[in-house]
Specification:
- Helices cover about 70% and strands about 5% of the residues.
- With about 325 residues, the chain is mainly α.
- Helix 1 crosses helix 13 and helix 12 runs antiparallel to helix 13.
- The N and C termini lie far apart (about 60 Å).
């Protein structure tokens, strides 16, 4: 009789290797998340040396936030995110398309890739301190403008809502456009060269290639970029916090939702902080779902049109 060979189950080793991740996620992420949601339904804060709560209050914290300045801070966050994201995605698309296009024969591509990615390696706090020094009333920018005779008095860049928001948007743009460019370059390089060759034979110019081939083919990566950027924008904290010394000046026009959340945590108001965290989670989920559905539906429609055209050709 032939001996049966003992079967080795390699599948269990995969579960063993990923088990530490799930344990760490469960202990340090999932349990605090559930606890945050639980605290959002309780009155729990500290008044002086007296700790009040936790007392169950239901949806009182959520209603109180709607009657606070939360919506104003949400508008501040979205404005500063848009100031940084719009030039980020436009310039990243242009650079990615130029660097990948073999016909342009750009020299030193690797050097330029490294240069545009370098700002992403700099800490946001360092960026904020740098811009605070550059654009202060006694900073180098005002000194240069005065020496050139373009201005007579120093400009208080951080004394106006437009100036402060613009500085925050520019910093976010500089920190992230390199990372976005690299991702979009990888997406464009994933498109089959045969498609571009066929388009060139058919007489497509550069603009038509970009809008009718490149953009539709990299739509999943664009959706990913938009979703991650939205999440990062809602979590905007370090740059405006350091630039305005936590004041959100002028007149709290640069105060973001996370700065508002941080104020509740500093005052030990855990109930309101928990409710605000849940609001942020829900808004992030809704926006990401909307972006995903929009891009996914467009992608399905494009594939359907291509199949339909293919049947007609046959």
């Amino acid at each position: 009789m032939k001996k049966r060979r003992k079967r080795i189950d390699y599948g269990k080793w995969g579960y063993i290797f990923i088990l530490p991740f799930f344990l760490i996620f469960f202990i340090f992420s999932f349990i605090p998340l559930v606890d945050t949601i639980r605290y959002s339904f309780f009155e729990y804060y500290r008044s002086g040396m007296t700790e009040i709560g936790p007392n169950f209050v239901g949806l009182k914290n959520y209603v109180s936030l709607l009657h606070s300045d939360m919506l104003k801070y949400a508008a501040n966050t979205m404005i500063m995110w848009l100031i940084g994201f719009i030039p980020q995605i436009v310039i990243a698309l242009l650079l990615a398309n130029w660097f990948v296009d073999a016909r342009l024969k750009i020299r030193g591509r690797q050097f330029f890739k490294v240069v545009i990615y370098l700002p992403n390696l700099i800490m946001a706090s360092a960026f904020a301190m740098l811009f605070f020094t550059l654009f202060s009333t006694n900073g180098p920018i005002n000194s240069i403008l005065e020496s050139l005779g373009w201005i007579k008095e120093p400009i208080d860049f951080m004394g106006s809502a437009l100036g402060t928001r613009s500085l925050v948007g520019v910093m976010n743009f500089l920190m992230w456009f390199g990372n976005t460019t690299i991702m979009l370059m990888a997406a464009i390089m994933g498109i089959s060269p045969d498609i571009f060759e066929a388009a060139e034979i058919d007489g497509c110019n550069s603009r038509q290639r970009f809008f009718y081939i490149t953009l539709p083919m990299i739509r999943p990566i664009l959706a990913y970029t938009l979703i991650t950027s939205i999440i990062g924008g809602l979590q905007m904290f370090d740059v405006p916090q350091i630039l305005t010394n936590g004041q959100g000046s002028p007149d709290r026009t640069s105060t973001t939702l996370i700065m508002f959340l941080n104020n509740h945590l500093k005052s030990k108001n855990y109930g309101m902080a928990g409710a605000l965290s849940v609001y942020l989670f829900v808004v992030s989920a809704i926006l990401c779902w909307f972006v995903y559905r929009m891009t996914n539906n467009e992608l399905k429609a494009t594939k359907h049109q291509l199949k339909h055209k293919g049947r007609k050709v046959k």
